[in-house]
Amino acid sequence: MEILLKNPLHFMETRFEIRNSEFLLMKLDYPERLDEMGALRVLAWKDEQGVSQDFFSHKAWLDDEDLLAHHWVILHNKEIVAAARMSFHQDYSSIPHADLFDGSILEGYGNGPYASLNRLVVAPEYRGNGFSTLLDEARINFATAHGIKMIIAQPVASRIKALEDLGFLYLGKIRPLYQMPERQIYFMIKELGK
């Protein structure tokens, strides 16, 4: 299955099929379905190695950034099976988890505005269908259409290659998130408009 979302107009809604099942990729309007996305984050991460079992014993993983961010979901039979968010920032210091990485490394890349890709999650039974790439492409297209200069990503190791394939550069490791104290997170950047 390959679905390319190169047209910036496709960041709103795209229908596609996998093995005779229909899926819908769509951008949500705030604050639509935030609780469901938060519950999916816990469901998808709670059994992963290196996460805080105490933190993931909660019903949902939501934070203040969710109220300001843009959100995309993939639906199957009206149920959210994958989700991701992106937030916009004028300066690096306001990016989620900016304190966990030395922002001075970005000096050679110019200034914002920045977009931050985060909270990508796919329900375990739907992994391996390319949903992460679809959500990445939709967010990149949206950032490009809105004049963003650079996109920051903070992926786990398994996502580095996929982001490199989309033009992101690997810049190093960040200190662990308290929600995932034994899971290494990395720092990547993609310059737009070059």
From TrEMBL:
This is Acetyltransferase (GNAT) family protein. GO terms for molecular function: acyltransferase activity, transferring groups other than amino-acyl groups. InterPro entries: Acyl_CoA_acyltransferase (IPR016181), GNAT_dom (IPR000182). It comes from Dyadobacter psychrophilus. Residues 24-193 form the N-acetyltransferase domain. The lineage of its organism: Bacteria, Pseudomonadati, Bacteroidota, Cytophagia, Cytophagales. The keyword Transferase applies. Keywords: Transferase. It comes from the Bacteria.
